[in-house]
Amino acid sequence: MTIMKIADLLGPWKHHVKEDNYPLRPAVFTCQVKMGCFTFVKVMMVLFNLLIFIAGGALLGVGIWVSVDGGSFLKVIGPIASSQAMQFVNIGYFCIAIGIVLVVLGFLGCCGAQKESKCLLMLFFVIVLIIFIAEIAAAVVALVYSSFAESLLRAWVTPVLQNDYGKQTDVTGIWNTTMSELKCCGFTNYTDFTNSYYFKNHGQTFPPFCCSNLTSVSVCNENAAAESNVQGCFKQLFSILRENANIVGGIAVAICVLEIAAMAVSMYLYCKIDGKN
To answer: On the CB side of 250, how many CA atoms lie within 13 Å of its CA?
Structure first.
């Protein structure tokens, strides 16, 4: 009996053979690999954005704490703030703003991946892209147009010194720590405090950090501050940044890489959702 005849005889029994006993077809195997990759990326997206959400909530809580009770916060982190001595803006509002952004991003990314919502994923992608472009633009301005960047910072910081220093506890404490550790005065020099709230409510005098020779004078008036010629905190801060350029650059690059990875993953999930369904 030939092989062909044997095959013909077994033909009626073919339907009794389960296909599960045979190896997976290539198309089915490829599909399962793609589904496994999609699931893995989805889980990583959820976990990563969950961490962002938690970090944003913690930062938001710290910002509210600083804004409500800056004195106790400075007592807790006093040594840390003194060693860094690089916070010379209202850190409470800054933490609140960054915390809100992180909470929103974490929520969009986590829910978008978990619910497989193309709308939330696209919104997450757009927000991260806007932040990324803003960071690149700020870095270009800071590197290429350093004088312009200084003008922008001065326009932002000077009103804080004029209106809030000596009035708000958190602003005053942070600036006192900064000026004490960096041996500086104001953003540019002592003139930043001229006609300020502190100046008007302290007998037209300047903060003691603006006078390096207070041992020979009783008060830090305009003449004493001019003779001391204490430089502003921006120059001191800029010098610290230049000395630690490698660290600052490394942190900036790491942040940019994370943002690019987040955008790539969100776009991958966005494009694969239709194919999965």
So the answer is: 4
